[in-house]
Amino acid sequence: MELPVAQWTAIVLLGAFLALDHAAWPSLVGAQPLVGGLVAGWLSGHPLAGVAAGGVVQMVWMVVQPVGGFTVPEGWLAGVAAALGAPADVALSGNAWLDDPRLAAPAVVGILAAAFGRWLVLVQRAWLERLGAGITPALAAGEAAPAVRLHVLGVALHALRGATMALVVLALAPAASQALGAAGVAAPAGRIAMALGAAALANCAPRLHRGLRLGLGLALGALVAYIV
Amino acid sequence: MAARFPKNLPVRAWPLDASWHASRQQGIGVLVALLPVLRRTSDPPAAIARHAGAFGCNLWTAPLLLGAMARLEDDGRGPDAVRLRDRLAGPLSGVGDVHVWKSVRPAVLAVALAGLLVGHPLVGIGVAMLVHVLALGSTWSRGFRRGWALGGELESAFARVRPSARLDRLLQSGLGVLAGALAGWGLVGAWQSAPSSAFLMSGALVVGYHAARRSTGWGVAFLGWVLLASVLGRFSNPVGLP
Lengths: 228, 242
Description:
The structure holds 2 protein chains of 2 kinds. By secondary structure, chain A is mainly alpha-helical.
C-alpha cells in the first residue's frame, strides 16, 4: 500500500496502543474492530470504507468474552486489516455496504489476522510463564525486582507485538484481500455478519422468555424496515 | 495514625493484565501494584512472598479487592489480605464478567453499531465510548478507594458494592429485544435487495445462535458462511434462490 511515512508510523503506533488496550489494561473500547477499522481507514485515506469494513467484523465480534482465562482473537487487528484491504469507494448511505460483496474478502483477511494475533498472544504468554517460573525462588525470598522486570517486559512485548502486526497487515492485507476477491470470495458479508451479531446479542438475554423477547424484537425490526 | 491511601495504586494497577500467564494469571501485576504498600510493612520480604501467588479477577472489579488488600497490608494484617484475596477473587470476577461482558460491553457496542447503521458512525462510536467510560471507568476508578475504606469488611459488604444485578438484567433483556430487532430489520432489508441474501442470513442466524456457546465459534461461523455464499454465488443469479 502506497502511504506516506507519517501514515505508516501512525498506523504502527496505533497498533502498539490497541494491542495494549486489547491485552494489558481495562479496554477503552479502542481495541474493538469498529474503532480499529475507523482509525485505520482514516489514516489510510478512506475512513468510510474503513468503518464499513470494521463494522462487518464488529458484528461478528459482538460478544467475544475473555472470561475463564480464555484468550480472545485480536479484534482490533481484524478491524485494521479489513479496513486496509477494503475498496476505497464503499458507500455508507442506504446501508449499501451490508450487501457489498467486495467487503467479504477484507473481512475474511481480518478474521484470519485476528486468529494469528491470538496465536502470538498465546506464544507470548507461554514465554512469560516460563520466565515467571524462573523467578519463583527470588519471589519466595522476598525480592520484588524480578517481578517488576517481568511486568515491564509484558507491557513492552504487547506494544511490540501490536506494532509488528500493524506493519504486517499494512504490507499484506490489501494484497491478500485482492487475491481472495480474485479467487471468488464475494458474498453479502454485512448481512451474514449482522445475523451472527444478532445471534450473539440474543444469547446475552436471560434464558427465561428469551424467545418472547426475540420474537417481539423481530416483529419490531421488520415493521421499522417496512415503514422506512 | 490514620491509614493513608496509596495514591499511586490505580496507576500501578492500570496494566494489571500485562504479564498475565496461565499459572499466575494477574499475580505479577497485583504484586507490582501493591509493592509500595508492601514495602512499608514491618516485614517487606515476607509481604512480597505472600503476594507472589496466582490472582485471577475481572479487570473492572479487581480494584475493589486490590484496595481492600492494600488496606489490610497497611494495617499489618497481611495474612487476612491473602485470605480475602482467596475468598473474594472468584465471586468478584463472576459478577464482573456478567456485568462487563454480558451486559455493559454488548450494550455500548450495540450503540456504536446503531450509529453506523443509521449513517453516523462517529456519533455512535463517540456515545459508546462515553457511556463505556462513565459506566465501567467509574466502577474501576472508584473501586480502589471503596475497597480501601472497607478493608476486611469488603466480604460482608459484597452485596452492596458489587455491580448492580438489576441493571445487568435490564440491559440483558434489552439486548434480547435489540437482537430480534436487528435480525428482523436486516432480514427485511436482505429480502428487498436479494431474496437469496435473506435465506443466507436466516441460516447464519440459526448457526450463530448455536455458535454462541464457543467464543471462537463466531469467526469460524462467519468464514464458513462467506465461503458457502461465495460458492453458491457461482451457480446462481444474484436475485434468485441459491
